[in-house]
Amino acid sequence: MDKHEIANVLEEIAFLLEMKNANPFRVRAYRNAARALLNTEKDLNDLIQEKALSNIEGIGEDLAGKITKLAKTGKLAFYENLKKSVPKSAFELREVHGLGAKKIQVLQKKLKIHSLKQLEKACKEGKLEKIAGFGKKTEQNILNALSKKEIYSQRKLWWEANQLAKPIVAALKKLSFVLDAEVAGSLRRCLETVGDLDFLVSSKEPKKVMKWFTEQEFVGSITSQGETKASIRMKGGFQADLRVVLEKEFGFALLYFTGSKEHNVKLRERALKKGWSVSEYGITLTKKGAPPRLPSSPTEEDIYKAMGLSYIPPEIREDQGEIQAAEKKKLPHLIEVKDIRGTFHNHTTASDGKNTLSEMVDAAGDMGWEYIGISDHSKSSFQANGLTVERLEKSILDVQKINNLKKKPYVFIGTECDILPNGKLDYPDSILKELDFVIASVHSALSQDEKNMTARIIKAIEHPLTTMIGHLTGRILLQRDPYKVNISKIIDACIANGKIIEINGHPQRLDMDWRFWHGASERGLLTCINTDAHHVEDLVFVETGVNVARKGWLEKKHVINTMTLAQIKKFLKK
Ligand code: DGT
Ligand code: CA
Ligand code: CA
Ligand code: ZN
Description:
Layout (H helix, E strand, L loop, with lengths): L2 H17 L4 H16 L4 H6 L11 H13 L3 H8 L4 H6 L6 H11 L4 H9 L11 H17 L3 E2 H17 L5 E4 L1 H4 L4 E2 L2 E6 L3 H9 L4 E7 L3 E6 L4 E7 L4 H9 L2 H13 L2 E3 L4 E3 L14 H7 L15 H6 L14 E2 L13 H10 L4 E7 L11 H16 L5 E9 L10 H4 L4 E5 L8 H13 L5 E2 L17 H11 L2 E5 L12 H6 L4 E4 L11 H10 L13 H9 L1
Parallel strand pairs: 4-7, 10-11, 11-12, 12-13, 13-14, 14-15, 15-16
Antiparallel strand pairs: 1-3, 2-4, 5-6, 6-7, 8-9
Helix pairs in contact: 1-2, 1-7, 8-9, 13-15, 20-21
The structure holds 2'-deoxyguanosine-5'-triphosphate, calcium ion (CA) (2 copies) and zinc ion (ZN).
């Protein structure tokens, strides 16, 4: 088993222990170990060989032993036995967002619910609201989750799909009979959600590649298998395709299978005018065509060049005018992760974050950042332990103390201030004035109609102390639709008032959506790429935030947190 599979098993053990009412500390130990395992950059086999697993924080001797066993044999008697002692249906019910071990136990015992079908029926009949711990609201939430589950279960968040794909591509590249391997499709284009994984391999020995791919641990079932193409369903149910091509076809195939379909269509039309018929295998000439000048195994770059285009990065192959721009050599210099010098939307244990201020600051230092902004929730977000004015004042002092040490990174103190249903900010101006920045976000009354919601957010934009708007539409990808808001009017208001809209890089949010950024930035809108971190480990979501910016054609100059510390200090003062 690899890291991910083992982490899954540890998560399942934690869940099973909870189902058996085990000691919560024991449950947490398994969850922590799963997380620690996923987060270590070291190779699992190296760790095992060096007996270094238990040196990792969160993994003790006992768990190190279990992980080693799983890695070596793929089996663990303790886990198998535990699984047998809990009804199988628990796993099915666990897939419903919002259902944990406690609730599942009640459902099984009191209502004899053992499947999603039975759960849906019981909700519809109003049976849940009659038992303690469940209300009408829970019932409604479960029904919502069930209906969304069907629509959404087909796709995965980009981040999760990428975690699955990365080790597979790396393993493919290492095989002696593989010349090159890449993942194509929506994953390579960094789309916010991904329907399936599209692996592409060049090799002289397709049979060996097919055999390797279909025999891997991650394969749940094989959907179809030919000589150069296989489709499988992975153990978690996610679909993956793999194609093997010749070395000389690889560039063409990569271009084709990266998509988007619309981009490909435009490219092919362009090629046809030159008398070239482009496919995933190469170029054939139509009657009027003269042969293109290409090396024997062209890269994507070579192919674009032959068509008179500069290289178009996968993220912007979405038929948004990229081909015309490439023709005129006017493609943007897309922002990169290394351009980011700090982020601003970060929570700490003061509100609902899981790490302390100093842990967050240290983690920002580890990211190589020059600065970090702290933005805990405001008082009306009581469910997120939002700060009263007094507690916020204390945070301001805590940050001053850190900055007085004159160490890197510099800390900006701000707030993620609720935009109240009437558009007012959740703190008086007297305290907002003491802060370096203010992120204004909607967290309540999400069902307002579009007119009210838009007016509400514009009111917050017009507040002189607002710096930026957080997660503009409130969407939770694959779970909750955006609330209704007129995005175009919001963009106008921000430009008119010199305000920023954040790119919330949390893999579940990616909000404001990339589709709006190209146009908005041309009209003068700036952004700040944030991670909405609630944990030190969330800071890496700067990558998903940058993906959004790149898909939205943004350059360094459009993103305020590429500024140096001196520049951003000046900028925020204004
Ligand atoms: P997904 O999987 O729904 O997130 O989106 P994609 O873009 O990965 O789509 P997928 O997996 O169906 O196909 C991968 C790529 O293959 C797609 O982006 C473009 C290319 N492709 C697939 N079918 C066609 C087609 O009928 N025409 C053209 N031009 N390209 C296609
Ligand atoms: Ca795909
Ligand atoms: Ca596919
Ligand atoms: Zn928020």
